[in-house]
Amino acid sequence: MGQCGITSSKTVLVFLNLIFWAAAGILCYVGAYVFITYDDYDHFFEDVYTLIPAVIIIAVGTLLFIIGLIGCCATIRESRCGLATFVIILLLVFITEVVVVVLGYIYRAKVEDEVDRSIQKVYNGYNGTNPDAASRAIDYVQRQLRCCGIHNYSDWETTVWFKQTKNNSVPLSCCKAALSNCTGSLTRPMDLYSEGCEALVVKKLQEIMMYVIWAALAFAAIQLLGMLCACIVLCRRSRDPAYELLITGGTYA
Hints:
- By secondary structure, the protein is mostly helical.
- Helix content is about 70%, strand content about 0%.
- The protein contains six helices and two strands, in the order ααααααββ.
- It has helices at about 1-40, 50-75, 80-125, 135-145, 160-165, 195-240, and strands at about 245-250, 250.
- Strands 1-2 form a two-stranded antiparallel sheet.
- Helix 2 runs antiparallel to helix 3, helix 2 packs parallel to helix 6 (about 195-240) and helix 3 packs antiparallel against helix 6 (about 195-240).
C-alpha cells in the first residue's frame, strides 16, 4: 500500500513538472500582456510600480521552466539532493507568488485614485490637429473602450482643444463605430458614446491586476501539491529500504 502511494506521488510529481513547463509559458504570457496593456494606458496611470507584479510574474515563469527541468530529472533519477533542491526552490517561488498576490491587491486598490489624478491633465493636453502620444492614447482608449470624455462627452467642452477648434464637436474617436457619417458634433449626441472613459479605464486596469492575481494563486496551489509530492518521495526514500526507483536499468519500476 505504501509503495503504491509513493509510486503515485512520483507519477503525480512527473506530471506536475510537465504542468510547470506549461505554467512557465502562461505566466510569461500574462506578464507580457500586462506590459503591453500598460503601454496603451500608461498616460492615465503614471505609477510605474504597478508593473512590479508583472515583472515578478515573468521572472517566476522563467524560473518555473528551470524548476520543471530540475524536478523531472530529480524525480526520474530519484536524486535526494535534487528533490531537496526542488522543494526549496518551489518554496521560494511559492513565497514570491504570495508577494505577487499581495502587491496585486495593493496596486489594484490604488488604480482608481491614480487614474482620477491624471486623466484630467491628459484630456486637457489633447491635441487633435498634431496629435502627440497622449492624444493618440485618448483616441485609442475612446475607440477601444467605446467611451467619450472623462465622465461623458460633455467633458470635452471644458478642454483647451474644444475651445480652440470652436466647432462644437468632440474627437471622431467618440463616434459610435457603426456610424460612418458621424462628425463628432454635439448637436447629434446620439451618434456619440455616452459612457465616460474614467470608469472604464479603471475597470480595465483592475481586470489586468486580477489576471495577475489569479494566475499567481492558481500556480501557487499547483506548487503546493508539487512540494507535497516531492516531500513524500524524499521522506520515503530516506526511511524505506524497500523503496524502488522510478527507473531501474532503463525500465520503469
